[in-house]
Amino acid sequence: xxxxxxxxxxxxxxxxxxxxxxxxxxxxxxxxxxxxxxxxxxxxxxxxxxxxxxxxxxxxxxxxxxxxxxxxxxxxxxxxxxxxxxxxxxxxxxxxxxxxxxxxxxxxxxxxxxxxx
Length: 117
Fold this sequence. Notes:
Helices cover about 50% and strands about 15% of the residues. It is α+β, with helices and mostly antiparallel strands.
């Protein structure tokens, strides 16, 4: 039973899902735009918005939470120093999903997930 379980399984076990979302979040913050499937984008969006909110707080506890989630000190520094200050006036909605259409091989709905300017 999946009582009180949050999020989608994405066709994998929990550890693989967590690793995949971590990798997508890293790619999003490094490149500020990624191309992925719609369901993966909807899941990584929640993680990315939470991390940016931590970056806006800017305290040591938030930095350690982001480091535990991403596992990369330089990337966490980039988020806290460069990315999060852009959104000081914004209360949420730091990402945008643009639909591209189906993928050729398996017709999976593809999207671009990007950070809002």
